[in-house]
Amino acid sequence: MTLATQTPADIAELTRRVRRHVVQMVYGAKSGHIGGSLSATDLMSVLYGKFLKHDPENPLWHERDRFIMSKGHCTPVQYALLAELGYFPTDELSTFRKKGTRLQGHSTVGKPPGVDNTAGSLGMGLSFGLGLRMAQRLQGLEDSRVWVLMGDGEQDEGQVWEAAMAASHHKASGLFAVIDRNGIQNDDFTKTTMSSEPLDEKYRSFGWHVLSDLDGHDLPAIEQAYNWALDQRDGPVCLIFDTVKGKGVSFMEHNPSFHGAPPSDEEFKIAMAELADA
Amino acid sequence: MTTIEIPTLAATREAIGPTLIRLQQEGHNIVVVDADLGKSTSARKFRDEFPDRFFTFGIAEQNMVSAAAGFAVMGHVTFATTFAVFAEHAFDQLRMSVAQPNLNVKIIASHGGVSTGEDGASAQSIEDIAIFSSLPNFNVCVPADVVEAEAIIEAAATTAGPFYVRTARPKTPVIYTDGPRFELGKADQLRDGSDVTIVASGLLVERSLRAAEALAAEGIEARVLNMATIRPLDTAALEAAATDTGAIVVAEEHLTHTGLGAMAAQALALSNPVPMEFVGLNRYGESATWSEALELMGLTTDGVADATRKVVARK
Fold first, then answer.
1. CB atoms B63 and A118 under 8 Å
2. Of the listed B14, B49, B61, B295, which one is catalytic?
3. Whose C-alpha in B73, B143, B163, B249 is 20 to 30 A from the C-alpha of A180?
4. In sequence order, what are the residues at sequence separation of 6 or more whose Cβ sits closer than 8 angstroms to the Cβ of residue A86?
């Protein structure tokens, strides 16, 4: 099942609801990764809303597309989307990171249904996605696909480049790397901690089809990029989106302080007001 | 069913390729991933038979292990083959990509232990049992000969969940000349005795049997257990050995403070503590022939016999 009937207005409203959930979850848990969830909200909402072949009623459908959350700390955005799309009730989002919850701090496969990988230690998702894609092809599932979401800080990990080399070697068409380039990693800006640029040239030299400098908050532009990716039939595809960490909450935007810290009571009120129904 | 015509002398690694071929012929939905050591591990024989089910990942074990997890979630019984030291290279991938999601990934390593020989310390894995035993959900096995290696690889293919199987490089005597007796999680008693029990794994099993024969001439009757499964450990067999014989020697080609001996001692501390001695390693090895490398470390028939006399004297 796809949700291709979603209108642009539907997707825009979905992103607003997802952002509100993200802020509420991290505030409620008093921990969690808010900035990187907000930067990826638009990318993921368009993907889940219009492109991903999946079925909330049948989360283990063998022929589904796989979404691999390689930046496994950004669970809030994925849980919010899964709940909004019907995998589980949105009420359960308030259990995030709490004792007994299915909504673990970092991605844990099957918890809740719809989470297809275990993550948290960065750099493994592209390899896992590559193996999945190669298995899909071995099984003749050409119309199933694998989407791997990575951060730009994550590009520091050497394993990413092992996977990049192997994906090209094995001509892994149907494998899509989506990079949420928000420019900030745990301690600081990526250009200060470890510059990974020029990312587009790196992936291109590894044999990938690359689109870069995409606006990761322009919903039609995101849709156009995914459509372009689906047209590439002879190798892996990398889409590099420029995003704003903390997007949608004024004082969180481009602010390294909101990588892994919760908002205060006052900040929470302001954030929710900014994300209120227009 | 066995594939291999039982020889008198063979390396446990020689079972890898032929056994994987048979298991795929029998319809076990196998995929093999490799990191540029398929000739040495014998896994490339599988490629010759099933080229569409064999994938090389180059000299990149971390990528290979996480990709193996991807094949496993799609339903394939996925075997990843490399040398034991290079499997260690991918610890975090084994932990998060394989052990935590409890996937059907089987790490079949060759060149375990100091018996790898001439290549020296960097190629001699003496920590692998500790590393894989530290990971919940992993089954950990060390065959005593090529016949048992085949049986263990078959058990790995037919038992859900992660496995680590350590095989060795040198050709060593075959013990199970009448066919395998391997049962996952069960020690195999190769000799009975009432004075002491020698618990051994891998290449030390044959040496322990010889030690027991030598000790019998001195009037010491030793039970010999082949502990081919390290995880889950057969604690019942250990407890029975402690009760029946009152003293235990553990002999392994691994660091003693983190290997089979340490795990056996923990199990017995909880049930029936008896005097124990440990034959194994406490330092890195060096270049030598495989048998000299074992001798340098005291992993010999005499080494096992000496430890056994010592523990009997402590009873």
1. no
2. B61
3. B73
4. A56, A57
Q: Report pTM.
A: 0.95
pLDDT tens-digit readout, B49-59: 999 999 999 99
Number of helices and strands in chain B (H, E): 13, 14
Domain residue extents for chain B: 9-173, 188-313
Q: Return the closest-CA partner of residue A181 out of A192, A171, A190.
A: A190
- A138 with B31: Cβ contact below 8 A: yes
- Domains of chain A, residue spans: 8-274
Q: What is the pLDDT of residues B130-154, one digit of tens each?
A: 999 999 999 999 999 999 999 999 9
| DSSP designation for A47 | I
* Exposed / middle / buried, residue B11 (Cβ in 10 Å: 0-12, 13-18, 19+): buried
Which residue of A124, A135, A163 is in closest CB contact with B71? A135
The answer regarding whether domain B188-313 maps to CATH 3.30.9.10 reads no
Q: Can you point out the beta strands (E) in B256-308?
A: 276-281
Rounded Cα distance between A66 and A147, Å, is: 6
A-B C-beta contacts closer than 8 Å: 93
Tell me the sheet residues that pair with B110. Answer: B83
Q: Do the Cβ atoms of A127 and B76 come within 8 Å?
A: no
- CATH number at A8-274: 3.40.50.970
ipTM value for the complex: 0.94
CATH number of B9-173: 3.40.50.970
- Residues in chain B where the model's pLDDT stays below 70: 1-4
Contact (CB<8Å) B58/A136: no
Minimal Cβ distance to B67: which of A109, A130, A138 = A130
Q: Can B9-173 and B188-313 be said to share one CATH topology? A: yes
